[in-house]
Design a protein that fits this description.
There is one protein chain. The chain has helices at residues 2-26, 43-48, 52-84, 88-103, 106-124, 131-156, 159-167, 172-201, 204-209, 217-225, 232-266. 80% of the residues lie in helices and 0% in strands. It is mainly alpha-helical. The model has no long low-confidence stretch (mean pLDDT 84). It has one domain: MetI-like fold, CATH 1.10.3720.
Length: 267
């Protein structure tokens, strides 16, 4: 049974990752062919970094991802601390509400936020669809993931440490910054990395909330697929896959190290 289970798992992973491997391999192909290998070349990567439209979209994606990651981490951490102080029943209700945006289809979230921004702009003249609305939308859908990353660390923390710091004369805010934040820092970093990855990778919500003045990298890739597929897409997709994969590996390694450290502290 173990052999069959491993074979079955291997087939699933092969089905999932074989197309990505083919995409990465043909991003180094000398010719434009998507099926015939004509030799190794960095031609498409060179063309990619000469494309001003793609570079502008890359700058927009990175700017949105960085701002969204920082803002959602601050708001999500504060929300997690507030939830921790609630009574059990109310906290359960609020965590359920926090989980709804994560299971809600992206297209529903994107359309609802677009309608909200359009309504606000029509009535007040504020929130014109563009970079600002794009950032707000990304912060909104990243916050729940930060809350879920920070909450376990708050649950693991001994609340007596914070109280002891206050008993020793430390002001509440200083005690929070010096005692609580270092204890939950692994969860905060994990949440920030996750928010950055999700923001960088998002297409559906960005499509409905960016307007005509701001385009992210996934949106540019989508527009390029409407015409004859240029091998630059292979190169661009390969780079995005490597970046996201690297961030996910870092997140998982941090989680593994945190578990090892917790086990060592118990013994």
């Amino acid at each position: 049974m173990k052999i069959l289970s491993r074979i079955y798992t291997g087939i699933i992973f092969l089905f999932l990752y074989a197309p990505i491997v083919v995409l990465i391999v043909f991003s180094f192909n000398q010719s434009k062919s998507r099926s015939v290998w004509k030799g190794f070349s960095l031609r498409w990567y060179e063309n990619l970094f000469r494309d001003s439209m793609i570079l502008e979209a890359l700058r927009t994606s990175l700017a949105v991802a960085v701002i969204a990651a920082i803002a959602s981490t601050i708001i999500g951490t504060a929300a997690a601390v507030g939830l921790k102080k609630m009574n059990k029943g109310l906290r359960s209700v609020m965590l359920t509400l926090n989980n709804i945006p994560m299971v809600n289809p992206d297209i529903v979230t994107g359309i609802s936020m677009m309608l909200l921004f359009v309504a606000v702009f029509a009535t007040t003249g504020l929130l014109h669809p563009g970079f600002g609305t794009l950032v707000i939308a990304h912060i909104t859908f990243c916050i729940p993931y930060v809350v879920l990353s920070v909450m376990p660390k708050l649950n693991q923390m001994n609340p007596s440490i914070y109280e002891a710091a206050q008993d020793l004369g430390c002001p509440p805010f200083k005690a929070f910054m010096k005692v609580v934040i270092p204890e939950i820092m692994p969860g905060i970093i994990t949440g920030m990395m996750m928010a950055f990855t999700l923001s960088l990778d998002d297409f559906v919500i960005s499509y409905f909330t960016s307007g005509s003045t701001a385009q992210t990298l996934p949106m540019v890739i989508y527009s390029m697929t409407k015409r004859r597929i240029n091998p630059k897409i292979n190169a661009l997709s390969a780079l995005m896959f490597v970046i996201v994969l690297t961030l996910l590996v870092v997140i998982n390694l941090r989680q593994i190290n945190d578990r090892k450290r917790q086990k060592q502290e118990k013994f």
